[in-house]
Amino acid sequence: MADSFQYINKRLYCENVDLIEFSKTVQTPYYIYSKKETLDNCQQVLNAGANLDFLPCYALKANYNPGLLKLVRNAGFGADVVSGGELYFALKAGFDPQKIVFSGVGKTIDEIEFAIKTGIHSLNIESAKELKLASAIAGKLRKKVHAAIRVNPDIEAQTHKYISTGLHTNKFGVSVDEAVKLYTEAQNDRWLAPQGIHVHIGSQITSVEPFLKTVKFLNQFKMRLEQSGIEISYIDLGGGIGINYYNDFQNQKNKPDFLTDILQAYLDGFKDSNLKVIVELGRSITGSSGLLISKVLYRKRTPQKNFIIVDAAMNNLIRPSLYNAYHEIVPLELNVGKYEICDIVGPVCESGDFLAKDRKFQSVNQNDLIAVTGAGAYGQALASNYNLRPKISEYLVDSNKVRNIYQGEKIENLAKQFKW
Ligand code: LLP
Q1: pLDDT at 211
Q2: Distance in Å, CA 285 to ligand 1 centroid
Q3: Is 125 within 8 Å of 150 (Cβ atoms)?
């Protein structure tokens, strides 16, 4: 079977699909995902948890396209949702309610009610007020809630500060002391079954150290709960395993492999615990599966800068603008020799609209195609209509077949949503 992404005769392929040929048949920009890459990532997770009572969940926030959701569900995953919308999509994609966990600091009454009625595996509670509300709603529905309390371990995740979530200065979870109080309260509440611990320290973490600190923290915390007479049956470790954004499809060097190495070390921390172990992985499942394909519209050289203006922009992929994130960008057709230092930018009217800055890139011409790699997670999911740019199509490759899994928006349909 072909690699997920590779060059054959200097042309980039997604599995067995020649992306230059495929691009002739559709409109750019577009997202394209590899089924094989997605399933390979799922399999690595399943392998890492093979010796545990293990429930891997996929965090829908990374990419909620049903085409991908169904792949992940069929691989045996559950779902991690953070809104009524994500719960709706998870159910519609066929995830077993007993394999759904619901996190988030600001769940509404409607969302909690929806989750309880659905009978999900775990409502991950983040505050004293949410606990009270969940109990009241469960009482009204006369249905017990299986809950975890999200504890904030005050651990530095060594990632961008916008996506670090496990510090006491972050809005997430509750402190150890408060958590102990909440477990006690919940245990005495006839509508709450507080059987789990939840933690999530951040995203795009590429070092094992914060996770090892979390293991230590959780083992101590569990002992503290036991001393207070609280019995726990599952532990939800969150997600956050980083991916490699420096892809090298030419030499097939996609290392280091954070998913295997870091996840294994994290899970090993619980192999003797007798607890059911849940993870909530987003980026590490779909991140490496996706490319954003874009066409060069113009070349523009000034005395100071060399711009490649392409048809994808920050409204399609906001990660470079928002987090100064690096995504390897590669040409769909390799040529020999010439490279330039350039900024790869989109058409949106902001200087913050860029996909790459001061990047060494193969010399390209108008109408040449490029691929932004590592775009399968937090790409289309964070897309907007800024500058009235419709959302773009998404495609899923399975060997030599391509399926349209999201029909890009049409400006006429967008206009219909407004009251004219
Ligand atoms: N669980 C919880 C409670 C979370 O908040 C998140 C991500 C995850 C799981 C999944 O994390 P992952 O395995 O994907 O790292 N837009 C940002 C990422 C935001 C992550 C938010 N929470 C980005 O593009 O980097």
Answers
A1: 97
A2: 12
A3: yes
Atom of ligand 1 nearest to the CA of 204: 15
- Which atom of ligand 1 is least distant from the CA of 282? 14
User: Which stretches of 137-182 are assigned E, i.e. beta strand?
Assistant: 145-150
Sequential DSSP letters for 358-372: EEEEE---TT-EEEE
Instruction: Tell me the pTM.
Output: 0.97
- In angstroms, the CA 17 to CA 12 distance is 9
**Nearest CA among 356, 369, 306 for reference residue 328:** 356
Amino acid at 42: C
The mean pLDDT value of the chain amounts to 95
- Per residue in 261-299, pLDDT tens? 999 999 999 999 899 999 999 999 999 999 999 999 999
DSSP string, 284-341: HHHGGGEEEEEEEEEEEE-SS-EEEEES--TTT--HHHHH-----EEESB--SS-EEE
Mutate to test the pocket of ligand 1, among 158, 203, 258 (most ligand atoms within 8 A of CB): 203
Between CA 103 and CA 111 the distance in angstroms is 11
Q: How far is the CA of 82 from the centre of ligand 1 (A)?
A: 10
Cα–Cα distance, 79 to 233 (Å, whole number): 19
d(CA 338, CA 48): 43
Q: Give the binding-site residues of ligand 1, using a 6 Å CB cut-off.
A: 59, 61-62, 80, 103, 163, 165, 200, 203-204, 238-241, 280-284, 319, 323, 378, 382
Task: Convert the pLDDT of each residue in 105-161 to its tens digit.
Answer: 999 999 999 999 999 999 999 999 999 999 999 999 999 999 999 999 988 888 888
Pairing outcome for strands 306-310 and 339-345: parallel
Tokens of 145: 């809630």
Q: Give the nearest ligand 1 atom to 62 CA.
A: 14
Indicate which residues carry an active-site annotation: 349
**pLDDT lower than 70: segments of the chain:** 1-2, 252-256
Look at residue 249 in the predicted model and tell me its pLDDT.
87
Q: Give me the pLDDT at residue 363, please.
A: 95
The pLDDT of residue 157 = 80
How far apart are the CA of 281 and the centre of ligand 1, in A?
Answer: 8
